[in-house]
Amino acid sequence: MLRAIFEGKRYLGAFFLVMGLFAGSAGSASAQTVLTLENPARGITVELTMDDLLAMPQTSFATEDEWFDGLNVYSGPLVRDVLAFLGDGFEYAEFIAINDYSAVIPVSDFFNYDAILALSRNGTPLSVRGKGPIWVMYPLSDNPEIQDRIYYDRLVWQLVRIVAL
User: Fold this and answer.
1) Which of 5, 13, 109, 159 has its CA 20 to 30 A from that of 48?
2) Is pLDDT larger for residue 99 or for residue 10?
């Protein structure tokens, strides 16, 4: 269940928090928060479950990358759609992995390229061992200009947090 807590609106935030706790009490692994979005300037925190991410429109593309052989088909929501939860007015976002690796990425990337938060590769959900469960992925093969170390460093795997800067 999508849980949003907006500072300054404690009652609304408490409502979402309580509803999220009740929804999470079912014990479903997919009901656990897998991605936290933050916009400190607006006092917004959004916690997404895998079900939330899978319920969003999914985009797929085939691309080559330097970690897996050949073309692989990645699927997941567009990064720009996920960032929409944070409102507008920020030019950069920090993408943070479970091991604290992070990359600061200009938001314009996500309007110039259909980058996704990949949840699956070749139809199989990404595991932690397979760079998942969430991996920032660009359509590298379709855009030769981004086949560069700068963009490879933006392919944050095991993503757990995005912070608007």
Assistant:
1) 109
2) 99
Is the separation of the CB atoms in 80 and 111 below 8 Å? yes
User: How many structural domains comprise the chain?
Assistant: 1
Q: Which pLDDT score, from 0 to 100, does residue 53 have?
A: 98
Contact of 83 with 107, CB cutoff 8 Å: yes
The pTM score is 0.82
What pLDDT, on the 0 to 100 scale, is given for residue 31? 84
CA distances from 16 to 7, 12, 43, 67, 118 (A): 12, 6, 15, 39, 27
Query: Which one-letter amino acid corresponds to residue 118?
Result: A
Q: What tens digit of pLDDT does each residue of 81-121 get? A: 999 999 999 999 999 999 999 999 999 999 999 999 999 99
102 vs 96: CA distance, rounded Å: 4
Considering only CA atoms, which of 28, 73, 81 is closest in space to residue 55? Answer: 81
Burial of 155 (0-12, 13-18, 19+ CB in 10 A): buried
Host domain of residue 72:
3-164
